[in-house]
């Protein structure tokens, strides 16, 4: 008959099975809660603010007027203003003074402007009641057509 195995005094270590279970559960938790989608990026655009408005804002809070405005940062180029107007019958679009009845008509006009040899500055100026989604759709098309800078107007 065999002699029973004696326990040593150093054998008081905790079992590793429960520790492995906890680590595995943590691993599963972090894999399930992590997102493997590509992170959403900020829109690479600025707000078109006239120099007078920037100075007025600076004067209201008591600070000095800004050293440079958007107009000073780059050479003066032509501006194309796209207005998005909300009406009773849906959205209307204007490029300067030219009316575009639908989004597809606006897109074709933007594509023709983008194909010109000049590279105009495009400013998207929506009404207050226009959804931001519609502004971003115009922005995406303009960037896709190769406009170098697309800005959003503020009142």
From TrEMBL:
One of its GO terms (biological process) is protein transport. The keyword GTP-binding does not apply. The keyword Protein transport applies. The chain crosses the membrane at residues 15-32. Keywords: Cell membrane, Membrane, Protein transport, Transmembrane, Transmembrane helix, Transport. GO terms for cellular component: plasma membrane. One of its GO terms (molecular function) is transmembrane transporter activity. It is a single-pass membrane protein; Single-pass type II membrane protein. It holds the Pfam family ExbD. It is found in: Cell membrane. PANTHER family: BIOPOLYMER TRANSPORT PROTEIN EXBD-RELATED (PTHR30558:SF3), EXBD MEMBRANE COMPONENT OF PMF-DRIVEN MACROMOLECULE IMPORT SYSTEM (PTHR30558). Belongs to the ExbD/TolR family. This is Biopolymer transport protein ExbD/TolR. It comes from Allorhodopirellula heiligendammensis.
């Amino acid at each position: 008959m065999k002699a029973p195995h004696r326990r040593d005094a150093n054998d008081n270590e905790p079992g590793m099975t429960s520790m492995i279970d906890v680590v595995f559960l943590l691993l599963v938790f972090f894999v399930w809660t992590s997102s493997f989608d590509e992170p959403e990026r900020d829109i690479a655009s600025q707000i078109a603010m006239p120099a007078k408005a920037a100075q007025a804002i600076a004067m209201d809070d008591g600070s000095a007027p800004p050293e440079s405005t958007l107009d000073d940062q780059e050479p003066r180029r032509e501006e194309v203003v796209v207005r998005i107007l909300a009406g009773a019958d849906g959205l209307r679009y204007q490029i300067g003074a030219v009316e575009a009845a639908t989004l597809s008509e606006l897109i074709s006009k933007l594509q023709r402007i983008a194909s010109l040899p000049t590279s105009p500055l495009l400013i998207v100026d929506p009404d207050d009641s226009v959804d931001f989604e519609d502004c971003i759709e115009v922005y995406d098309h303009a960037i896709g057509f190769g406009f170098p800078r697309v800005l959003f107007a503020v009142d």
